[in-house]
Amino acid sequence: MTNRWNLTGRRALVTGGTKGIGYAVAKELLELGAEVLIAARNALDVADCVAAWMAQGLPAAGLAADVTDEAGRAAVFAEVAARWGGLDVLVNNVGTNMRKGFVDYAPAEYEQLFHANLFSTMEMCRAAHPLLQASAHAAIVNIGSVAGRLDVGTGAPYGLTKAAEEQLGRHLAVEWAPDGIRVNTVAPWFIRTPLTAGLLGRPEVLARVEARTPLGRVGEPAEIAAAVAFLCLPGASYITGQCLVVDGGMMAKGL
């Protein structure tokens, strides 16, 4: 039973692993026994996170790379190949947003959002496929959003990318099941991260979010990390093609 609830011996790659949800996911996987490689753009942040985890005896590593860029993705998978020669878990966490009315976006802005939130996830999955296919217990978890299911005022391009990301997970779960790769999505509501700090720092916005959420509060990164980790565990071995919404009950509330 214990072996079903730990990740000892698993090799995990987490993108955007120095802040917010990505940091919490990496930490959770490390504490469950996985070896974790984080990738993020800021070299100093990567070094600080890895040093702190290693000081706790956790098997962490990292590199500075922008996974929205082809060269950055190549560097990440070169490191994975050199360090491990294989991969068991991929968590695609990188994403960003620009909140404005639809007609106010310049084409270059929504193209940027599609590259950051969707195309990079697609390419990370594709590059990871041969490594995951060689694993006996491969899992991909993509970080989506409830914005991919209903309008939450985050802007049309962001919602579009998150809806597409969820559909990508469903499709790959079916296509790659014969390869032994499970693919799932976790869709958060408002979580306290650097990406939401500006909005949640406005009392009127925070009050609306809390009023809309049956649990009456904003979520924490560790609560998303727990959901991600569960989907990577041996105990979740029959779960694929799903989207686990982590929203404090928001989508269940209605009027």
Brief summary:
This protein is of the alpha/beta class and about 260 residues long. It has 9 helices and 7 strands. Helix 4 (about 105-135) packs parallel to helix 5 (about 155-175).
CA-CA gap between termini: 42 Å
Outline: globular
**Lateral arrangement of strands in the main beta sheet:** 3-2-1-4-5-6-7
Number of helices: 9
Provide an overview of this structure:
By secondary structure, the protein is of the alpha/beta class. Helix content is 45%, strand content 15%. The chain contains nine helices and seven strands, in the order βαβαβαβαβαβαααβα. The chain has helices at 20-31, 43-55, 70-83, 107-133, 156-175, 197-200, 203-212, 221-232, 250-253, and strands spanning 11-15, 35-40, 60-64, 89-92, 138-143, 181-188, 243-246. It has a seven-stranded parallel beta sheet, sandwiched between helices. Helix 1 packs across helix 8 (221-232). The longest helix has 27 residues, at 107-133. The mean pLDDT is 96.
Q: Which key terms come to mind for this protein?
A:
single chain; 255 residues; alpha/beta; seven-stranded parallel beta sheet; 15% strand; globular
Please render the helix and strand layout as text:
Blueprint (H helix, E strand, L loop, with lengths): L10 E5 L4 H12 L3 E6 L2 H13 L4 E5 L5 H14 L5 E4 L14 H27 L4 E6 L12 H20 L5 E8 L8 H4 L2 H10 L8 H12 L10 E4 L3 H4 L2
Parallel strand pairs: 1-2, 1-4, 2-3, 4-5, 5-6, 6-7
